[in-house]
Amino acid sequence: MKRAALTCTFLVICSVFSAADRILTVQAGLGTSPLSSGGLLPQIRPAFGKLPLSFIPNRGQIDGPASFYVQGKDKTIYFSPEGVSFVLGADAPDGRWAVKLEFIGSNPGVRPAGRDETGAVVSYFRGPADGWKTGLPLYSRIVYANLWPGIDLVFSGAADALKYEFVVLPGADPSLVRLAYRGASEVRVGETGGLIVATPAGSFEDGAPSAYQNRPDGRDDVPLAFDLAGGEVGFKVGEYDRSRTLVLDPVIIVYCGYIGGPGLDHISGIAADPAGNVYVTGFTASAGDFPAAAGPDPAWNGGTFDAFVAKVDPTGSALLYCGYIGGAGDDYAYGLALDAAGSAYIAGYTSSTEATFPAAVGPGLVHRGGFDAFVAKINPAGTALEYCGYIGGTGQDYGRGIAVDAWNRAYVAGSTLSGEGTFPVKQGPVLTYGGGRDAFIARVSVDGRTLEYCGYVGGGGEDAGLAVAVDPEGRAYLAGHTNSSESSSPAFPAFY
Length: 496
Description:
Radius of gyration: 27 Å
Strand content: over 45%
Shape: elongated
Helix content: under 10%
């Protein structure tokens, strides 16, 4: 396997960018590549995300009416009472270009105000000492309060992304929100509901907007679409409770951040629970400075790679747990599934023997040789393994996909080079090894101690199971690839 000297896995939830996102690249000193990741919260753990975008107050260090600005190496955004200006740098195709987002029909005299100081300061030492601007506080949010009657406009950002939302207080009229892009050669609504803004320096697109109303136990989504008329942009809002605050959110980036250390880190499985927590699994070569916290195992175990599992909170601002699963050999996790209680189930493969691998309860407690597939269940807190065991024979066995049914039985899919003499076949679907590499599927009991069934799916060629799903009645569906011909594979009944 080829290994990079330094890389870092990243997790992105959604990839639709607003006009502001697409124009802003990064803060000064953080790089110059086009924006490809971001987040919404003003503060993200350094172990997970990147430095938050900060708003700099203008105390006379720059000319013009801007009250705040965000400065990148080749792009700058200025926030003034009249609107927001995006200035593209000299690397644009036709040189510098500016687009101004104006607030149509807004209350005159509203100025943006800084909120939530980050604790950092910036100083400008230019010219004589009496002209220096020192100790300027940085802010993680700026607010245009009551920009339209009962409507606030809030800008925030983190990890190189800019987010804005309109907070419509009870009784206020969201149809008052009208925007205009001055300096754009064309503004139109695309086929998917996004807003496409074209300029001589290039085009960018604001994704289809969303709206919601918070409630104590969650939130209610509200239908929302762009309303383009006469060159001005507003919103068409569906039915909602006018006695509650409504949030119009044109930016659909939820968050983006890193999970990794100094070595190669790879995410290969992801799942989300009803509360919006996100679970990821994969493998890592980061033996130190990996953000292991809570478990299931906070300590590196050796070898080149350890498997890992992590849980990210709904806001993307924190790792609720993150830990290793591994032994002294090489350990890889590929599949991840969740049950209703929030337990995470992992499928992968390992060369670690039971002397160092955390095999406990089952389904298999003895390493049979080479790589064995494994399955593990992590408790909802992420602090312990409820079970962890092997599925394999004396050949090479690889666990790749996993699913969980309503009874909390785990279904593991993968591939194997082990014959029926050593592979733990039981009940089926096929008990005879087909040769080459066979796909396999196995069902693990609720307590993890035994395999309720385990069998091959394959022919005389190379067959691999990569993904599995299960229906409400407990029927498993296996997907993978094969080069076995119909003369040797169990192609029955088949659509092709």
